[in-house]
Amino acid sequence: MKAMDLVERAPSFILLVIWLGWNIWQLVKTMLVYETEDRYYYIRYLTGPGVSVAKSGGAALNLNSMLILLPVCRNLISYLRGSCSTNQFCRRSFRRQLDKNIAFHKLVAYMLLMWTIVHVVAHMFNFRNLYLNRTECNHTFYSDAELSCALSDNAELSGDPNNWINPILSSNPKLPFGLDLILQGLIPIAGWTGAILTVVFIVMFSSATEFIRRSYFETFWVTHHLFVIYFSMLLIHGTGGIIRSQINLEEHNIDDCRDVPETWGNNATCAYPEFKDGSAGSWKWCIGPIFLYVMERTIRFVRSCLKVTTTKVVKHPSKVIEIQMKKSGFKMQPGQYIFLKCPSISHVQWHPFTLTSAPEQDHFSVHIRLVGDWTKQLSKVLGADGEETINPENLPRLAVDGPFGTASIDIFKYEVAMCVGAGIGVTPFASILRSIWLRSLNQKDNLKIRKIYFFWICPDTSAFEWFTELLESIENHFAEQGRAHFLQYNIYLTRGWTTKQAKHLYLQEEQEIDAITGLRQKTSYGRPMWDSIFKHIGEENKGVSVGVFFCGPAALSRVLHENSNKHSKLLGEGARFYYNKENF
């Protein structure tokens, strides 16, 4: 692994180690408490090591339940990474970690799954052993049947009905398939809340797969909002206090009294052991994140209720529509994104779209490719399907949440930027290039950035059409200013041309204007040779930090990330490439 690769991964690695270390610390600390402290000796005797395993797993569950909400607080993340006025407090490496919030959310979910399995399986053994103690206290499972029976009957023998150590206080008639044990396990608060917690988590986890989210979004949305039940049950789960600890260790010393249960209560040195409920601890971990998330959802709700005026709907070629909107108090930065909802289609579906307008314009806009049921329905209700034109006053209401910051807004912090968009992934760069163009027109071009390498990879010829007008305007403007070198763009067509079109393109090769895009820069055919491209850019910008910004599929992202690390030079005269990817 190269030095630059280590530098790039170091912040993520450090945060990952801290998170894993925190999990291990919770596990070991809780395990030692329940395995070594005398106050838990008798519950350990009845259950075996299962109680220590279950409580350790529960401690890790509390930790990760606290963390699972934080990465999805979009407003908090956006605020921290620089959307708001605190940008000067956020270093580049810190903001880059914030861009990986959804990846961390998924990691925490996998950790929750693992600890849920550990916690549930351990408690299944615990309840089996406790039920055995209640029904057959002289079973061979216990090394000292007399001690086992004394603990089972401690409440009755001590004359205090609340002085029990075994939470299973009665037994059911023998039922098939272990139903008698299951029914007893569901009676305590911890039992039925734990069952609901487990079922709810399994439903949320299984419905969050890529396939469900893309094909059945409403199913994903509804099931993921079961988190309300999850956290409600989590806060209640520990209130039953079924794992009890001994409180009179001085009057009932474990070492002196455990071997003589027949003398309990009959002499001054061995009183009956007294037990108290365990305390609920989950609320201490979760109340803070729950409060933050409630505030997050309140902000989202308030913003979604603000009036949005749809001023224009444009139908572009290649199945792309542009929606221009206005909203009171809306302030954006180039490269940000919004969440869009159309209540006439669905009251629950919010979809992220990158803003393609610039802050200098009097409206904000998004370009939407019609690739799914929701986007096609949106096109229809907005009258962009070609069947009928709708008066702007009669257009359906749209709700907007945002804007939110992404990696692309950091482009102005570099002297040189390399922007790569694949297909509709070009949208964040439309906003950035438009903003630079308008600032230059208004003579407010006081930017740090002095060079942009722009790469657009398109799957077919129709994908060019909606964006070329902007590129042409920018190209002409900077050429007139004598700064044609400022924007160096490369368009790649990866497929979609016929043999007849190929012959036509060959004949047009000598012309100044490209036959497909109408731009001065000729279109390339096939896929970019990224290794050569990075090498060339590195040689042109020795000793300079180059921001690499990408929006598109994961496979290409990996290639770009690898090349960024491969061609970065920490020392010497080479360029340093810093990779940034859009995440929604």
Please describe the topology of this protein:
Layout: H1 3-36, H2 41-47, H3 50-69, H4 74-83, H5 92-98, H6 101-135, H7 145-152, H8 154-158, H9 179-186, H10 189-206, H11 210-215, H12 217-224, H13 227-237, E1 245-246, H14 254-257, E2 275-276, H15 282-305, E3 308-316, E4 320-327, E5 337-341, E6 351-354, E7 364-369, H16 373-381, E8 399-404, E9 416-422, H17 427-441, E10 451-458, H18 468-480, E11 487-493, H19 499-507, E12 524-525, H20 530-540, E13 545-551, H21 554-566, E14 576-581
Parallel strand pairs: 9-10, 9-13, 10-11, 11-12, 13-14
Antiparallel strand pairs: 1-2, 3-4, 4-7, 5-6, 5-8
Helix pairs in contact: 1-3, 3-6, 3-15, 4-5, 6-10, 10-13, 13-15, 17-18
Rg (CA only): 32 Å
Note the beta-strand portion: 5-15%
Q: How far apart lie the N and C ends?
A: 29 Å
Low-confidence stretches: 83-90
The geometry reads as elongated
Mean pLDDT: 81
Please report the number of helical segments. Answer: 21
The number of E-state strands comes to 14
Helical percentage: 40-55%
> Largest beta sheet, briefly?
6 strands, parallel
Strand order of the largest sheet: 12-11-10-9-13-14
Helix/strand structural class: alpha/beta
Any overview of this molecule?
With 584 residues, this protein is an alpha/beta fold. It has 21 helices and 14 strands. The chain has a six-stranded parallel beta sheet with strand order 12-11-10-9-13-14, with helices on both faces. Strands 3-4-7 form a three-stranded antiparallel beta sheet, with no helix packed on it. Mean pLDDT is 81; it is low at 83-90.
